[in-house]
Design brief:
Largest sheet: 7 strands, antiparallel
Order of helices and strands: HHEEEEEHEEH
Shape: elongated
Structural class: alpha+beta
């Protein structure tokens, strides 16, 4: 514990040293005059991502990604990663098409999905949440994972959230078809391609 504090000591001391510099400079008549605060850079960090940037990044990573679509005012990408088809929805988009947050989403259609299984998943998982889709002929679970985007980080900020999404999507599918007392094999997973 003390090691961590000692490692932070330079960070703690730096502000005190910076505050002392103007006072030291003022005492030296030959020193350059102290000016006001340094102006922030004039170019702002780019905020958000465009669907085209996300599509190019996913394609570079090996996914098959359709062109961005807008359905009833909602922009989305349809992604196939080789094992499943899922969607990315874009939210908080400005006039230039830059969006402030995204949502990964997938539908899993399977016999035997129950509210108890969905609730168990939601109790045990922190990030990807599931709910049963009403009015479907077969049991359908919808999974969603929201990601807030940070300014200036670019598309690489999707690395960790995408890994979390893929791992938990696979985990949900496995948990839905985990062995039970049934003797028949579980039905195959069908992800809608719409």
């Amino acid at each position: 514990m003390f090691r961590r504090l000692s490692a932070l000591a330079p960070l703690i001391a730096a502000p005190a040293l910076l505050m002392a510099v103007p006072a030291l400079a003022a005492g030296d008549p030959g020193a350059a005059p102290v000016t006001g605060p340094v102006a922030a850079p004039t170019q702002e960090a780019v905020s958000g991502l465009t669907p085209a940037e996300v599509r190019a990044w996913l394609t570079e990573k090996g996914a098959t990604v359709e062109e961005p679509q807008t359905i009833q005012g909602q922009t989305l990408l349809r992604v196939n990663d080789g094992s499943a088809t899922w969607l990315i929805f874009f939210y908080g988009c400005d006039a230039t098409g830059r969006c402030q947050d995204i949502q990964f989403a997938a539908s899993v259609v399977a016999d035997g999905l129950s509210l108890d299984r969905i609730n168990a998943w939601n109790r045990e998982q922190r990030f990807v949440k599931a709910y049963l889709q009403p009015n479907q002929s077969a049991s359908t679970a919808v999974l969603q994972f929201d990601v807030l985007l940070s300014a200036g980080l670019g598309v690489e900020q999707l690395n960790d959230p995408t890994v979390v999404w893929l791992e938990l999507l696979a985990g949900f599918i496995e948990s839905v078809f985990a062995p039970t007392n049934q003797t028949a094999p579980p039905p195959p997973v069908t992800l809608p391609i719409r």
